[in-house]
Structures are given as C-alpha cells and as structure tokens.
Design goal:
The protein has 139 residues and is mostly beta strands. β10 and β11 form a beta hairpin. The chain has strands at 2-5, 8-11, 20-23, 36-38, 45-50, 55-60, 65-66, 70-71, 76-81, 87-92, 97-102, 107-108, 112-113, 118-123, 130-134. The protein contains no helices and 15 strands. The protein is 0% helix and 46% strand. It has a single domain, classed as YVTN repeat-like/Quinoprotein amine dehydrogenase (Methylamine Dehydrogenase, Chain H, 7 Propeller), CATH 2.130.10.10. Strands 3, 4, 5, 6, 7 and 8 form a six-stranded mixed beta sheet that branches. Strands 9, 10, 11, 12 and 13 form a five-stranded antiparallel beta sheet that branches.
Length: 139
C-alpha cells in the first residue's frame, strides 16, 4: 500500500518493521499505523525502527546503503519528523520513552519519559509539540 501526497510517499511496513519515516520531498503523508513520513530538501533518507535491537537505521536511497544504527530505546514503535526537518522523534514502547534524534548528524539526545508503551507519535504543524499515544494507560 502506498499513499502519496505532495510527492512524499509512505509504504506499509512489513510485520518485522514497525515504523518507517521517509525524508525526501515536500509534504507529509501517512499510510499505516506505525508508519510515518516527512521530507527534507536535498536529502533522501528512510528511517527504519528496529524493534529487536532498540535502534533506528537510516537508509540512504541515493546509494541504497544503510547508515550507522542509532540507539533509541527499547522496542521503537513509531517515528515522527519535525516540520523543519531537523529532528526525528522515536516512540520507544519497551522503555516508555521518546528519543529525539538530530537528523543531520544521526545523534540521539537523552530519552524523555512519557509513560507506559508509547506506540504512536505526531508533531504539531508548528513543530513545538509532540503528541504521544499509548496502548497501555499509565497509573
């Protein structure tokens, strides 16, 4: 399944992958739970959440090569990109955190505790807020 809007596309993730973030062209689209996309001018990168290793892999589509894995937290579930394309936020279901990742450098910042099993995340249009959803209510 592919959904296209303003030249950005998102692909439904296979069962082994829980989140994809496409950083490529203007626009934002989403196709499936656990899949997200956004665009960064002059860069074509797909961020893939690796549930088993607690990492995110950048895939550079211009070379079809994977970059160095970025450690995020236990069971990364979803990825959201800020409108200015500077940051990715990874919801880590296994550790109850969201990890900010600087897109240009691939550097992860300190994770933010958000509660039990965050499994979805979106960024506000102005980039000032991240909204995180959980399948498990926190006490």
């Amino acid at each position: 399944m592919t959904v296209t809007q303003r030249s950005a596309a998102v692909f439904a993730a296979p069962a082994a992958l829980t989140a994809l973030a496409l950083i490529a062209a203007p626009g934002v689209a989403s196709a499936a739970p656990g899949a997200a996309s956004a665009a960064v001018p002059r860069h074509v990168t797909v961020l893939v959440a690796n549930r088993g290793s607690g990492t995110v892999s950048p895939i550079f589509t211009t070379t079809n090569r994977a970059g160095k894995r970025i450690r995020t937290g236990g069971v990364p579930q979803a990825i959201a990109i800020t409108p200015d394309y500077k940051m990715a936020y990874v919801a880590n279901g296994g550790s109850g955190t969201v990890t900010p990742v600087r897109i240009r450098t691939g550097a992860a910042r300190a994770p933010v505790k958000v509660g039990a099993f965050p499994d979805a995340i979106v960024i506000s249009p102005d980039g000032k807020m991240a909204y995180v959803a959980s399948t498990i209510a926190s006490a």
